[in-house]
Amino acid sequence: MTANYEAELQAAVDLRAHARRVPYPQAATRLEELATAADQHADRLRKHIALLGGTAPVFVPTPYQGLNHWDRMATSFKKADEKRRRYLEQSIHWDIEYPRQARLLGDLASDETENRRIIEELTSRADSLATD
């Protein structure tokens, strides 16, 4: 759970940093929305860790700078895909033994599927040759 928590914090920081630098104003709004969703996921995971008697680790992520907007978006897409896959695998693995955790992870996987679709759309519209 702590690795998932840290991945969501990292995603939020990366997406907010991208939003500040994106060359397309309409994309900045979408990136901010995605960052807020990642913050909400991290908060749900933090609360669940506390419910299990643990403490979420202190983690201060550094935003991925990338070569350009396209590189940052492609990296965010890859990370969103990895999170979705990890959530799905964990929810299936823990379904019988830990149903509450499995439901949480299944919900996060569902959210991440939509977030991944949005990132994919933004990445496809980015110019891979553009520089900042």
Summarize the structure.
Helix content is 75%, strand content 0%.
Evaluate the radius of gyration: 15 Å
Distance between the termini: 35 Å
Please mark out the parts with pLDDT under 50 across 5 or more consecutive residues, or reply none: none
Order of helices and strands: HHHH
**CATH class type:** Mainly Alpha
By DSSP (H or I, 4+ residues per run), the number of helices equals 4
CATH topology: Ferritin
Largest sheet: none
Instruction: Provide the β-strand percentage band.
Output: under 5%
- CATH second-level architecture: Up-down Bundle
Query: Can you say what the CATH homologous superfamily is?
Result: Ferritin, core subunit, four-helix bundle
Total individual domains: 1
* Estimated structural class: mainly alpha
Report on the architecture of this protein:
This protein is mostly helical. The chain has one domain: Ferritin, core subunit, four-helix bundle (Ferritin), CATH 1.20.1260. It has four helices and no strands. The protein has helices at 2-21, 25-51, 69-93, 99-125. Helix 1 packs antiparallel against helix 2 and helix 2 runs antiparallel to helix 4. The longest helix is centred in the N-terminal third of the chain and has 27 residues, at 25-51. It is elongated, with a radius of gyration of 15 Å.
